[in-house]
């Protein structure tokens, strides 16, 4: 019997629509929020409500949609479902996937305000709900990072850890018979499509099935569609030999023993904006006016009722996706949805870093110079670490700052996503010997300019300022700070160099005071 060839795929089927909003949307802020200034539309479209989303979607409901919205991924999915329910095909016709790696999201710039554990529970809610309400949508697409130095084990172990943590959270919130269906919504994406990637993907699929069977029993059928392969160019995977399964198991066991939400600090980097969106970055009067009209024209009572139902579901541990869809239909905005969850869920705590400590002997000379420079100070050397803008990554756990703390430096972090006025108040309250700015983006540079002006007006211009840049790319435009702060690249700075900078800045401040 001759098997007929498959019909050719249509272009819209082969190329999904990727929804990756701008950083304010991904972090849970509306485009007219003060903290969104300078970042609106810079690295993607601003999506503040269902109307914004509908304007981006094609008329053909069969086009697959891939959502890459970090902390607000569940909200974008809820709005997508609300949009689809209004169409003749209904929500069941939706195809695509939600990039739903809670571990990676919590370590990224758009990390949520709620705790890492709450983020994992929210991802589990989304996975379970999507399998029931949107059968053609995959509720958890987990990327496999490119290997570093040709070692395939760490990225595979990280992806397996994310998938297992998500399934464990799902098992705590779902009945056993529903766990098998939820697992069908998980898929992995390799960072390329070469023979090495294919070998690693087959290896990952084999171990994934074995681990599920070991932890939850029989019933998880092997899946040919578990692993996808992207067409992006990047470092390839070396071919994997069967004996390495024990190595991967050991790496996975070590990561799980260290804790689900540990920090894997490499150089803190952020990709420059694409040329197509580089002229964006600030919400114009027209967009702000349109957002104000949206809020004014919606049914205020329906909004408040839907937000109340969302808050109660989040506080009681009930799946929040149904209430989120109701919020989308009522006209709730991205910032309102995120604010309710931030108030109802446990707050984010500082993640644990498992970076290897620096041997004291390597720090002794620099520590001695800092102690000599600090003689006569009434208290230990105090740093204030401020993070202007929306980047929520925990810089304080970077190895160079941990080493400084080990040497007796008092490092204070008032938190992420603070307004310039709040940062100025923190400087007035803490009275640091050195002020450190964490500069992760163009937006943080713009806010830093405002903060430095405010500090000058408040009489704090004599505080030495050290700026750490997350990327050395010229587009960041930090040249204007050359006269007002000492600039360093976090990826190129060692702990002894940081201690030397602190000693020099304290000496310079004492000389200026004299």
Jot down its keywords:
metal ion binding, disordered N terminus, 514 residues, 6-stranded parallel β-sheet, Rossmann fold, cobalt, 2 domains, globular, alpha/beta, isomerase, cobalamin binding, Cobalamin-bd, 19 helices
How many domains, as an integer?
Answer: 2
CATH class of the largest domain: Alpha Beta
Strand content: 5-15%
State the CATH superfamily name of the largest domain: Methylmalonyl-CoA mutase
Largest sheet: 6 strands, parallel
Strand order of the largest sheet: 1-2-3-4-5-6
Radius of gyration from CA coordinates: 25 Å
Query: Overall mean pLDDT score?
Result: 84
Helicity level, as a percent range? 40-55%
Structural class, judged by helices and strands?
Answer: alpha/beta
Describe the 3D structure.
The protein is α/β, with parallel strands linked by helices and 514 residues long. The chain has two domains: 11-263, Alpha-Beta Barrel (TIM Barrel); 359-513, Rossmann fold. The chain is built from 19 helices and 14 strands. It has helices at residues 11-14, 23-27, 50-56, 73-85, 102-106, 116-133, 153-173, 176-183, 195-216, 244-258, 285-297, 300-316, 321-330, 334-344, 360-373, 399-406, 420-430, 442-457, 495-513; strands spanning 17-19, 65-67, 96-99, 137-143, 186-190, 227-229, 262-263, 352-353, 382-388, 410-412, 416-418, 434-439, 465-469, 486-489. The protein has a six-stranded parallel β-sheet with strand order 1-2-3-4-5-6. Strands 9, 10, 11, 12, 13 and 14 form a six-stranded parallel β-sheet that branches. Strand 12, helix 18 (442-457) and strand 13 (465-469) form a beta-alpha-beta unit. The radius of gyration is 25 Å and the shape is globular. Keywords: Cobalamin, Cobalt, Isomerase. Its cofactor is adenosylcob(III)alamin. One of its GO terms (molecular function) is metal ion binding. Belongs to the methylmalonyl-CoA mutase family. Residues 380-509 form the B12-binding domain.
């Amino acid at each position: 019997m001759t098997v007929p060839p498959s019909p050719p795929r249509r272009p819209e089927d082969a190329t999904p629509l990727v929804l990756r909003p701008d950083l304010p949307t991904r972090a849970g802020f509306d485009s007219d929020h003060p903290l969104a200034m300078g970042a609106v539309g810079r690295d993607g479209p601003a999506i503040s409500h269902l109307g914004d989303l509908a304007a981006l979607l094609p008329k053909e409901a069969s086009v697959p949609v891939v959502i890459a919205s970090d902390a607000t991924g569940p909200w974008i999915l809820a709005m997508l479902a609300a949009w689809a329910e209004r169409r003749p095909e209904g929500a069941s016709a939706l195809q695509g996937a939600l990039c739903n790696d809670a571990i990676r999201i919590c370590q990224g710039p758009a990390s949520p305000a709620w705790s890492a554990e709450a983020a994992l529970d929210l991802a589990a809610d989304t996975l379970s709900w999507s399998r029931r309400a949107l059968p053609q949508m995959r509720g958890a697409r987990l990327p496999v990072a490119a290997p570093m130095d040709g070692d395939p084990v760490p990225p595979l172990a990280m992806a397996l850890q994310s998938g297992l943590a998500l399934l464990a959270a799902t098992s705590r919130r779902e009945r056993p018979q529903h766990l098998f269906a939820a697992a069908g919504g998980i898929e992995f994406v390799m960072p390329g499509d070469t023979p090495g990637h294919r070998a690693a993907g087959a290896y990952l699929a084999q171990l994934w099935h074995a681990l599920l069977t070991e932890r939850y029993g029989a019933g998880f059928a092997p899946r040919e569609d578990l692993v996808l392969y992207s067409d992006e160019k990047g470092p390839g995977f070396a071919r994997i030999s069967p004996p390495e399964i024990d190595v991967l198991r050991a790496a996975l066991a070590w990561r799980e023993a260290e804790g689900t939400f540990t920090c894997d600090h490499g150089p803190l980097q952020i990709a420059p904006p694409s040329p197509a969106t580089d002229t964006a970055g600030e919400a114009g009067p027209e967009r702000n006016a349109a957002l104000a009209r949206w809020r004014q024209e919606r049914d205020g009572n329906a909004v408040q009722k839907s937000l109340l139902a969302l808050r109660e579901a989040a506080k009681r541990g009930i799946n929040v996706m149904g209430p989120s869809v109701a919020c989308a239909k009522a006209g709730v905005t991205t910032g309102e949805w995120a604010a309710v969850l931030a108030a109802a869920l446990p707050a984010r705590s500082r993640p644990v870093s498992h970076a290897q400590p620096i041997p004291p002997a390597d720090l002794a000379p620099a520590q001695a110079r800092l102690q000599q420079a600090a003689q006569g100070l009434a208290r230990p050397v105090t740093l204030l670490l401020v993070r202007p803008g929306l980047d929520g990554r925990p810089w304080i756990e970077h190895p160079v700052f941990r080493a400084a703390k080990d040497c007796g430096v008092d490092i204070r972090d008032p938190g992420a996503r603070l307004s310039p006025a709040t940062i100025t108040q923190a400087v007035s309250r803490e009275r640091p010997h050195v002020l450190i700015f964490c500069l992760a983006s163009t937006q943080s540079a713009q806010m830093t300019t405002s903060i430095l002006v405010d500090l000058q007006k408040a009489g704090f211009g004599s505080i030495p300022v050290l700026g750490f840049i997350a990327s050395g790319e010229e587009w960041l435009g930090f040249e204007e700070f050359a006269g007002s702060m000492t600039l360093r690249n976090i990826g190129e700075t060692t702990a002894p160099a940081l201690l030397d900078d602190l000693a020099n800045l304290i000496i310079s401040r004492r000389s200026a005071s004299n």
